[in-house]
Structure formats: structure tokens, C-alpha cells
Design a protein that fits this description.
Blueprint lengths: L2 E5 L2 E3 L5 E8 L7 E7 L6 E6 L6 E3 L7 E6 L4 E6 L8 E8 L8 E5 L2
Parallel strand pairs: 2-10
Antiparallel strand pairs: 1-3, 3-8, 4-5, 4-9, 5-6, 7-8, 9-10
């Protein structure tokens, strides 16, 4: 059974940093592209960034480019999202999944406010 368990969310002030983790199970992590998404209150879920398999190549939504960094640990079957220079508009529930999406975890809430 494919599972995603996101963690590391919380409340931070604007400009602060946070690192999210997504532990996975039920599939061969190393061969899959992994993607982060987020969903703000009252909005649709949106793409944040991708970690491509077998490489350190990543891509990002324009709204987070230069501030967020995705990394992965194939041995731990975990993907990470380092969030720097946080803005209030980054407030959302953050999710990870494979590409294409197979399932969703419960997400982790991130709140940016002063």
C-alpha cells in the first residue's frame, strides 16, 4: 500500500525557515519522481516542486523558486522541502506524492504570520 507521511510543519514568522519531511512506503522510492504540493484555505491544490529520480535535478513553481529547495534520501525513502524566506502566502497544507500521483497523505500544516 502506497503511503506518504508528511511532517515538520508549524508556525513561523515571515522570513523564517522550516524543513518538511515526507516519509514514504509501499513503492520503489528511488525510481520515482517526487513532487511537493500545497493547498491554501479556499484554494485548489497547487504544484510546489519536483525531485527527479536518479539525479539531483529539481524544478519549482515560480512562486517559490529561489526560496524553497527539494532534496531526497533514497536510502530513507524520504523527500524533503527546505523552506526559506517564508511569506504569508506560503501558508497552506503541504503534501508530497509520486509523479504521477498515486495517493495522498494527511499533509502538514504550515502557517506564516507575524
Amino acid at each position: 500500500q502506497v503511503q506518504f507521511v508528511e511532517s515538520g510543519g508549524g508556525s513561523v514568522h515571515p522570513g523564517g525557515s522550516l524543513r518538511l519531511s515526507c516519509a514514504t512506503s509501499g513503492f520503489t522510492f528511488s525510481v520515482n519522481h517526487m513532487r511537493w504540493y500545497r493547498q491554501a484555505p479556499g484554494k485548489e491544490r497547487e504544484f510546489v516542486g519536483t525531485s527527479f529520480n536518479f539525479s539531483s535535478v529539481t524544478d519549482y513553481a515560480d512562486s517559490v523558486k529561489g526560496r524553497f529547495t527539494i532534496s531526497r534520501d533514497n536510502a530513507k525513502k524520504t523527500v524533503y522541502l527546505q523552506m526559506n524566506s517564508r511569506k504569508p502566502e506560503d501558508t497552506a497544507v503541504y503534501y508530497c506524492s509520486t509523479v504521477p500521483t498515486r495517493a495522498w497523505g494527511q499533509g502538514t500544516q504550515v502557517t506564516v504570520s507575524s
